[in-house]
Amino acid sequence: MSPPGEFVITVGSSDAGQRFDRVVSLYRSDCSRSFAATLIQDGHITIQNNTKKPGYRVKSGEKIQGCIPVYEPPSLIPEAIPLNILFEDRHLIVIDKSAGLVVHPAPGNDTGTLVNGLLYHCPELGGIKAELRPGIVHRLDKDTTGTIVVAKNRLTLDNLSQQFKNRKVQKTYLALVHGVLGPESGNISLPIGRHPVDRKKMSTVSAKGRDAETLWRVKVRYAAATLLELELKTGRTHQIRVHCTSMHHPIVGDGIYTYGKRGKKKRNDTPLETLLKSAKRQMLHARHLRFTHPVERRSMSFTAPIPEDMQRLMDCLAQDAGDSQPDGS
User: 159: domain CATH number?
Assistant: First the structure.
């Protein structure tokens, strides 16, 4: 039996010509492309027992061998990370998460996470026994902005977790997507699971997909994009991003789920295409969050302002097309 972390990949014809580090990340869900590049450079992953550069283009039939070190969770360290606090009491805290901030430690992100910042701001979180996720009830992707609630004690954590499980929490997002949608609203009900080939991605064609439902309505139509308001009825990983792509309207700036001509920059791109491709992250924002206070039993609703980079992009689109801006509701 091979030691934990060891693997062998035989390059198939469909992967021939791809970058070495990309192929590794496609077949190993525990290894991002950047992590793969580091392991390749350090000689932990080879081709035919020969060291290659991460950008090496693999050939059909070659064998990739390597060993991915077993991840050892770090000790949680409080860090003075700036937090945009929307609300706080002795039971919970609601944050307007900024882009680029990972919610909790994971391989490749041991420090500098929202949890590290919360432990500095709320030392009592350390008393919740939840390994690397003390107080975390739900998550937002690294480059998704907006509202997120965190529990400060076990009672609140259990209550909020139950509210999410029973779908009693209302989560509303704004997403700027490629293309102009014709209908005013719609419902996407497609199961979501791991992509059958790329294990770092989610897909609606997974063999083990779980039920997922997203409601959407048009807020603003631009010349080459649409601002959508979306409500999650379920909370699957990458749900909005995957569902928007399933409609052939991927989220602007989403480098993982945007395909074809809407992806990489090209010399013959129109000014509008160039503008949309200038987005440095997915234009997805958790706008509203509504839940019941676990102790006071009153309904609570929070709204996070549209982040500057997303607002700038919408302003540019509006100027080009003469469209109106969202009403802020």
Answer: 3.30.2350.10
CA 204, CA 161: separation in Å to the nearest integer? 26
Q: Half-sphere exposure (CA, 13 Å, Cβ side) for 170?
A: 12
Rounded CA gap, 250 and 248, in Å? 6
pLDDT digits (tens, 9 = 90+) for 291-321: 999 999 999 999 999 999 999 999 999 987 6
pTM beyond 0.90: the answer is no
- Active-site residue list: 141
Same domain for 56 and 92, yes or no, is no
Q: Which of 121, 151, 166 marks a domain boundary?
A: 166
Q: Examine the domain organization and report whether 61 and 95 are in the same domain.
A: no
Q: What is the mean pLDDT of residues 107-111?
A: 77
Query: The tokens 């603003």 sit on which residue?
Result: 220
Q: Indicate the DSSP class of residue 27.
A: H
Residue 58 lies in a domain: yes
21: containing domain: 6-67
DSSP string for 178-241: ES---SSEEEEE--BEE-SS-TTSEETT-TT-B--EEEEEEEEE-SSEEEEEEEESS--TTHHH
**DSSP reduced 3-state for 34:** helix
Residues 189, 61 share a domain: no
Are residues 162 and 93 located together in one domain of the fold? yes
Give residues with Cβ within 8 angstroms of 267, minimum separation 6. Answer: none
Which of 99-108, 193-202, 211-220 has the highest mean predicted lDDT (pLDDT)? Answer: 211-220
- Residue 69: exposure state from Cβ atoms within 10 A (0-12, 13-18, ≥19): exposed
| Residues 228 and 94 occupy one common structural domain | no
Parallel, antiparallel, or unpaired: how do β-strands 284-292 and 145-151 relate? parallel
- Domain membership flag for residue 99: yes
Nearest alpha carbon to residue 65 among 52, 46, 51, 78: 46
Q: Can you give the three-state secondary structure of 239-276, one letter per residue?
A: HHHHHHHHCCCCECCCCCCCCHHHCCCCCCCCHHHHHH
Whether 125 is covered by a domain: the verdict is yes
Residue 200 has pLDDT above 80, yes or no: no
44 and 59 in a common domain = yes
